[in-house]
Design brief:
Two copies of one chain form a homodimer.
Chain A: H1 3-10, E1 42-43, E2 58-59, E3 75-76, E4 88-96, E5 110-111, E6 118-126, E7 128-129, H2 133-153, H3 175-181, H4 186-212, E8 217-218, E9 220-226, E10 229-235, E11 239-243, E12 248-250, H5 261-270, E13 279-280, E14 296-299, E15 309-312, E16 320-321, E17 323-324, E18 331-332, E19 342-343, E20 365-370, H6 371-374, E21 381-385, H7 387-390, H8 395-405, H9 415-427
Parallel strand pairs in A: 4-5, 13-16
Antiparallel strand pairs in A: 1-2, 2-3, 4-6, 6-9, 7-8, 8-19, 9-10, 10-20, 11-12, 11-21, 14-15, 17-18
Helix pairs in contact in A: 2-4
Amino acid sequence: MSAGWFRRRFLPGPPGPAPRPPKPRASPVPYRRPRFLRGSASSPGPADTARRPDARPVRSPARGRALPWNAGYAEIINAEKSEFNEDQAACGKLCIRKCGFGAEDDQEWLTLNSEEFLTGHYWALFDGHGGPAAAILAANTLHSCLRRQLEAVADGMAATPPLMHLSGCCVCPSDPQFVEEKGIRAEDLVIGALESAFQECDEVIGRELEASGQVGGCTALVAVSLQGKLYMANAGDSRAILVRRDEVLPLSTEFTPETERQRIQQLAFVYPELLADEFTRLEFPRRLKGDDLGQKVLFRDHHMSGCRSYKCVEKSDLKYPLIHGQGRQARLMGTLAVSRGLGDHQLRVLDTSIRLKPFLLSVPQVIVLDMDQLQLQDDDVVVMATDGLWDVLSNEQVGKLVRGFLPGNREDPHRCAVLAVEFSRGLALHPCCS
Amino acid sequence: MSAGWFRRRFLPGPPGPAPRPPKPRASPVPYRRPRFLRGSASSPGPADTARRPDARPVRSPARGRALPWNAGYAEIINAEKSEFNEDQAACGKLCIRKCGFGAEDDQEWLTLNSEEFLTGHYWALFDGHGGPAAAILAANTLHSCLRRQLEAVADGMAATPPLMHLSGCCVCPSDPQFVEEKGIRAEDLVIGALESAFQECDEVIGRELEASGQVGGCTALVAVSLQGKLYMANAGDSRAILVRRDEVLPLSTEFTPETERQRIQQLAFVYPELLADEFTRLEFPRRLKGDDLGQKVLFRDHHMSGCRSYKCVEKSDLKYPLIHGQGRQARLMGTLAVSRGLGDHQLRVLDTSIRLKPFLLSVPQVIVLDMDQLQLQDDDVVVMATDGLWDVLSNEQVGKLVRGFLPGNREDPHRCAVLAVEFSRGLALHPCCS
């Protein structure tokens, strides 16, 4: 990707050659629920559903169908917000090296490869918006992208430190020393593969949605276990935590217009054309109005990290703010509540031709846990959830619920499955949550 | 500052109007040592100087001349590296509100103002390079810029939360609520004032050096105490720590081409013109050569945070790397070891017209300590030093030395002064350090 590519794609330029004729439209992405839910039925909400007829039913894998690592999963059918549940999930075994998929239809979850070189596991949550298509495509595609990207670097990971040349040959005899001096580790290659896989998947989604005339986007939260490490890759506002006996470790950070303010303002500073004279990149405590003109008011610009200053209000400051609102209400260009994710290639500000995609990143942040070093215990649990959970429960509250539940159910191999259902049943009483 | 400003200043464009005739050249910035060193003499190095005739003498304020908060200061005369000591320091009382300086010549340190509104203290270290002029200008100027910037926001800081309108009037009755919702605090305005002061000082240095035909730059590490808070602002590779009985708290992070790789590569991605076809923005484990062509080698680009991947080497990858070398040897464009600081407006890559300034930031990172909340004790000490100290001692080693020295000298009001001299005497045995 070059600066030229970005400019050609997103910035207005001189009229180019005539656009290619539209491709024949592909059929829409078929709607589905995660594969591992096949055979399951929706269970009713919690005991007080009778008093709350609006409580939504909870769906989880059929009893006896274990997910990798006996992971639990549950979802609330989102019938009240939209016709389809916009969220998706996927999990499976990850076998890196040889190409070719297993016969997916016969299996409860994805087997990415039948021959092994490196094996691991993969769990993913996709929180969709603007329609279910992007999250479905992500659930169908991201693991394949990841497998391809991991296979592309697997030979390099074979040595410690990783090979400078993928072929294994040393152009310079001290190449291993250079790699070691730079502190490059095998896990850096896995992180790189995750970053590239997210980008590749985003491109696939863009092409597929364009071809089928659909729209939409999704966040992505992905856990991968490989070679004794747990990788948590996050693009969006979902969240993962590790609950241990004495602590709750955050495994991700949320990416929203608020948390990524500086990156977004910086892009608007470099390419003001992206705002099409409709938005101001400056942040004020509230949207300014005519009476503020000429006054000195608090503001923040791209280069200001933890600080504020005052500026004299000019007419251009009265435009709609690039990032507006507070907390859950914060929106990018008044439209989108997340700043990273997959899809949204066609998303435009309502009634304008202004695109949001240039401000969105598909690259995830990846956090690595060394599972051996952490000496994980039986009762240590990773909780991954979309904002529906985190809007009503804090990390500490979730930790307390997990710690209160698990020790009393040590004998049940499906205890994480039961726990996930319990969480969702609690959430089913908050129909306002996504 | 706008994107247009950046483009006009640093990017090649169509021929503009004829340049303004050169101003009459001002006289060079006169060389001096910090004002509070007046009357002091260089003391010999440590006891074993006799065995090490190359050990450099140490200079510190004359006994009895206390610095604010009984701070200690010591420097090594840098006679072996250059004719002048390129480093500088300043400290003084900070009185915010009214204009006008005290009669500086009569005082041991700077009194910034004789009438008080808010009072605090200021300590600063400037590590110069390419000549002493930039550090001298910074020591002469930065405190005035800071006072001006603080005075510009002092009225806004008078209320809690700070006033949305500097005038105090409320255009919208719920303005205080908006400010509170955004979590804006008085300390954000002080941080903003520090950031603006660094930028203003950088502009002053640029103008003065151009007028006097001098060159050079410096890092800046500034501590400010104000309203129960300690602000540590850092632009460069100096470092501050807080040594407490049971812990050592870092109060700054270093800004070097290595630690700011992503920001620097990102700028080169957006404005490839800045590399003038001489450099590659990509990072490889070592500089590539002809034999690497066509091979797949480890690399890192601007969007890759903690990760690496492989790419097929093309001819353009053989160019000199934008950031090259490792650790202390890492250089920006083969020239500069720091990525933030003041000055360097005229600095160019040797024998080329390629400027480094667009890649350098004058904005500091500011860390805030709440001194009340920390319940600071008598033996808690802030240590500020340039890389000369940190190249030979770790945070923990410095902490151990401080803890070993202070408790045995509780009665001596000048014990920090003695401690600073002891540190420098130790360093005087490492003449290789700057």
